Automatic annotation (TrEMBL):
<dbReference type="InterPro" id="IPR015421">
    <property type="entry name" value="PyrdxlP-dep_Trfase_major"/>
</dbReference>
<dbReference type="Pfam" id="PF00155">
    <property type="entry name" value="Aminotran_1_2"/>
</dbReference>
<keyword id="KW-0012">Acyltransferase</keyword>
<feature type="domain" description="Aminotransferase class I/classII large">
    <location>
        <begin position="40"/>
        <end position="382"/>
    </location>
</feature>
<dbReference type="InterPro" id="IPR015422">
    <property type="entry name" value="PyrdxlP-dep_Trfase_small"/>
</dbReference>
<comment type="subunit">
    <text>Homodimer.</text>
</comment>
<dbReference type="GO" id="GO:0008890">
    <property type="term" value="F:glycine C-acetyltransferase activity"/>
</dbReference>
<dbReference type="InterPro" id="IPR004839">
    <property type="entry name" value="Aminotransferase_I/II_large"/>
</dbReference>
<dbReference type="InterPro" id="IPR010962">
    <property type="entry name" value="AONS_Archaea/Firmicutes"/>
</dbReference>
<protein>
    <submittedName>
        <fullName>Pyridoxal phosphate-dependent acyltransferase</fullName>
        <ecNumber>2.3.1.29</ecNumber>
    </submittedName>
</protein>
<keyword id="KW-0663">Pyridoxal phosphate</keyword>
<comment type="similarity">
    <text>Belongs to the class-II pyridoxal-phosphate-dependent aminotransferase family.</text>
</comment>
<dbReference type="InterPro" id="IPR050087">
    <property type="entry name" value="AON_synthase_class-II"/>
</dbReference>
<dbReference type="GO" id="GO:0030170">
    <property type="term" value="F:pyridoxal phosphate binding"/>
</dbReference>
<dbReference type="InterPro" id="IPR015424">
    <property type="entry name" value="PyrdxlP-dep_Trfase"/>
</dbReference>
<dbReference type="InterPro" id="IPR001917">
    <property type="entry name" value="Aminotrans_II_pyridoxalP_BS"/>
</dbReference>
<keyword id="KW-0808">Transferase</keyword>
Amino acid sequence: MGRLSFINEELTAMKEAGLYGNIRTIESPQGPWVTIEGRKVLNLCSNNYLGLCSHPRLVSKVKEYVDTYGVGPGAVRTIAGTMSIHVEFERRIAAFKGAEDAMLLQSGFCANLAVIPTLVPSEEDIIYSDELNHASIIDACRLSKARVIRYAHSDMEDLKRVLEETKGQGRRKLLVTDGVFSMDGDIAPLPAIRELCDRYDVILVVDDAHGEGVLGRAGRGIVDHFHLHGLVDVEVGTLSKAFGVMGGVIAGRRELIEYLRQKARPNLFSSALTVPDVAANMAALEILEESPELVERLWRNGNFLKEHLSKAGFDTANSQTPITPVMLGEATTAKEFSRRLFEKGVFATAIVYPTVPKGKARIRAMVSAAHTEEDLLFAVDKFSEVAKDMGVL
């Protein structure tokens, strides 16, 4: 149809620019090795940081809860969808994170949509947002009617500048930042951000998607990492990465959580998290409550991979976490590099524009606690072989 002709035109343009994504289908459980197209390949793509996606304790807990509670919640939380297991998980995750209360949602994306438009809904409000914030933060800011002011990535001088320029303006002010920036693996300077927010009377929101289960004591997150308990207004987390399941969580003071329960649209108009999801998240939380072993193993693996890739001559940028970007520059180079890696048995997806800026395409290697050193050395060997074949080192 003529009115939809732009679709094929834009798809063709994406392919010609090397920006079209080849979405592969996994035919096995998530793990350090997965089956794709009938082949077993090393998995360096997933956010399964602790290897919990197919952990037997999570599987067992799901079976137990499904037998007891069924599968679906049947309604939104505010009508008839709040089950005792939702309330128990919220109590446990709040205690784990050292917060007064917590709210469970359908995803980390929904958690950002619940927080930002609810706290700053008016044209008279102002949002300060790091220029490299995740798409869910950007979309949440768009849903708010507030004026959005971007500041240079983790640049405290630039943040101070925009705060000073807007001093005395606006009704409510809110700053939102990722805790760990997922494409580069660097950590937001949260203590300095908090100090500026206190000085200029700004609500502080940190999206800890890639810090949940990774940073802090036994994965308690970025607030715990920086010892800022009670000093960050809102913690947003996701349960689809280190926890290995699905869901989002908001933690903070009791009155904040009560306010969001009453007013946040994802809580009012979208059904509650399913029973299997809650069960698996509960089991993941129990594992973290019991021991920091998986978190410590994740960090050892991340440091091991970075060290050996750097020795091989690769640029792994300035990552401060187990996220390991391998910088390649152009989208077409990164796409071809990923394709050749797959042929050699390594599943590592190219990250290109618009996910990262043009000219900063990369392979983002995501390690987990489930990888062995032999797995990671295999990866380094294959990265080196492809780099030699393509002449990029």
